[in-house]
Write a structure and sequence with these properties.
Its cofactor is Fe(2+). Belongs to the TfdA dioxygenase family. Keywords: Dioxygenase, Iron, Metal-binding, Oxidoreductase. InterPro entries: AtsK-like (IPR051323), TauD-like_sf (IPR042098), TauD/TfdA-like (IPR003819). This is TauD/TfdA-like domain-containing protein. By secondary structure, this protein is α+β, with helices and mostly antiparallel strands. It has one domain: Double-stranded beta-helix (4-Layer Sandwich). The protein has nine helices and 17 strands. It has a seven-stranded mixed sheet. A three-stranded antiparallel sheet has the order 13-7-15. The chain has a three-stranded antiparallel sheet with strand order 9-8-12. α2 crosses α3. It binds 2-oxoglutaric acid and fe (ii) ion. Fe (ii) ion binds next to loops.
């Protein structure tokens, strides 16, 4: 299979899951929509875009949108009239336009019930379901008073994890349930050159074995089938990825370990791994100037790049909160040792 990336400067990745194209650029097709950048480093809210209307647009619009999401980290669209099926169609076009490998489709979460009403590729995010010991947010099942324990990027336990994710929240408590995102590019940019060099040679193990217990609590068998890529299957729920990852859409490097799933930096002692991971997690959770916090209204929708951001739900409410999420799969994570850039330097900041 032809691959856009054939140089030896690539650390990590897998031959059947390399990106099809190179970096994206913005041709300006979204210029007619007004927007607000919510912070200098992360988040853009568009006005007057309906996902449903964009479904009939050409590929260039999807490319421009992919570039916008990948460069701003997360994009917010208010009050969307869109069905779960349209969300899936949209995400397939987005990931394709962005250059994801042919072997990558939409993810099937290992906890998604077989024959579920909305289909295999929709994860139902539901506070009520979570009360039964299920859902995607195990983190608070083990007693902790640190809300920051819930920071993660989606499904990094898969050998081929997510490029983009779309979440629409349709049921909301009167207040609470905000979601926060943080920029992986910005955290990479806060590392000194010697620490960057150290981390560029390292991989980390990501593990979601706790889903085996959650599947039992829910009474559903774990989905061991192909979960959107031939490389994502079985009950192992473990993957090894580079600690620093290049995003093919922007060419920018990002830190790629997360509190939810990353257990161990490989090839160093356990103590060194703990120190390094804790330092990186603290950079994410203790820098509110690398984060954006979104206050949802009914039917608002977010699309983010899981390769270069983390997110964290807020469990500060008691009334029901629910929505639908679709995750597309990108490339197997890699670091481009020659071409990978700092966001700040590339933007001349
Ligand atoms: O409920 C939320 O705000 C976020 C849930 C989540 O982690 C996700 O949709 O990937
Ligand atoms: Fe998530």
């Amino acid at each position: 299979m032809p691959s856009a990336i054939t140089t030896t400067s690539i650390f990590g990745g897998k031959d059947i899951a390399r990106p099809r194209g190179g970096e994206l650029t913005d041709s300006g097709s979204l210029e007619k929509y007004s927007y607000n950048d919510l912070t200098p480093v992360i988040g853009r809210e568009f006005e007057n875009i309906q996902i449903r209307d964009l479904l009939t647009a050409g590929d260039q619009v999807f490319k421009d949108l992919a570039y916008t999401i990948s460069s701003r980290g997360v994009v917010f669209l208010r009050n969307q009239d869109v069905t779960p099926t349209e969300m899936k169609d949209f995400m397939l076009r987005l990931t394709f336009a962005a250059g994801s490998p042919e072997s990558s489709g939409l993810h099937v979460h290992p906890l998604t019930e077989e024959g579920s009403k909305l289909g295999d590729q929709i994860s139902v995010i539901s506070s009520e379901k979570q009360k039964n010991g299920g859902g995607l947010t195990h983190m608070l099942s083990d007693v902790s008073r640190f809300a920051s324990n819930a920071w993660h990027s989606d499904i990094t336990f898969e050998p081929v994890p997510s490029d983009y994710a779309m979440l629409k929240i349709h049921t909301l408590p009167p207040t609470g349930g905000d979601t926060l995102w943080a920029s992986g590019y910005e955290i990479y940019d806060r590392l000194s050159p010697p620490i960057r060099e150290l981390l560029k040679g390292l991989t980390a193990t990501h593990d979601a074995k706790f889903f085996l217990d959650e599947a039992k609590n829910l009474g559903n068998p774990l989905r061991e089938c192909e979960r959107g890529s031939p490389l994502n299957k079985g009950a192992e729920l473990t993957a090894v990825h580079p600690v620093i990852r290049t995003n093919p859409a922007t060419g920018w490097n990002s830190v790629y370990v997360n509190k939810g799933f990353t257990k161990r930096i490989n090839g160093v002692t356990k103590d060194e791994s703990d120190v390094l991971l804790n330092y990186l997690f603290n950079l994410v959770t203790q820098n509110h100037d690398a984060q954006v916090r979104f206050r949802w209204k009914k039917n608002d929708l977010a699309i983010w790049d899981n390769r270069s951001t983390w997110h964290c739900a807020t469990y500060d409410y008691s009334d029901p909160r629910a929505g639908d999420r679709v995750c597309s799969l990108g490339e197997a994570p890699y670091l481009d040792l020659e071409q990978g850039k700092s966001r700040k330097e590339d933007l001349g900041l």
